[in-house]
Amino acid sequence: MPDSFLVIDDSKLVQQMYRLIFSRGSLAGSTVHYADNGREGLSLLAAHPELTLVLLDLNMPEMNGLELLARRHAEDIHPHIPIALVTTEATEGDEARGREAGAWNYLRKPFQPADVERLVELARVRTPVRP
User: Coil, helix or strand for 56?
Assistant: First the structure.
């Protein structure tokens, strides 16, 4: 079964970067869902228990990444799916807040395709059993 991903980011440029990354190499053929804000992202997360990994921006309109993580925890939405925060916020405090909120991993923007590929490989190892 091919991998399935969710990208939650309000930047169309960043979404285009993900489209390129997920169209090449070992990630080609993956299913990728896109959301422009946390509210849309939470709905897509709830609707897709098969996700391999969620790539979540921190700063977005309507519902930011930390708010999404809090709602996901409060509503117990697919806790088996790893969520990586992807953000320009680069302090240790920012990363600690993200991990405390439930982020499984943390990736700083700007990132390279290899960074995303590494996260995918780590997520595959973390989530060997899918519903």
Answer: strand
Q: What values do phi and psi take at 81, rounded to 5?
A: -85, 120
Look at residue 92 and tell me whether its pLDDT is greater than 70: yes
> Strand 105-108 to strand 83-87: parallel, antiparallel, or no bridges (unpaired)?
parallel
The packing angle between helices 65-75 and 38-47, to 10°, is: 30
Q: What is the largest CA-CA distance in the chain?
A: 38
Rounded distance between C-alpha atoms, residue 110 and residue 91, angstroms: 15
Name residue 85's beta-bridge partners: 56, 106
102-106 mean pLDDT: 92
Residue 105: CB partners within 8 Å, gap ≥ 6? 82, 84, 85, 119, 122
Helix (H, G, I), strand (E, B) or coil at 122: helix
Kindly state the percentage of the chain with pLDDT values over 90: 76
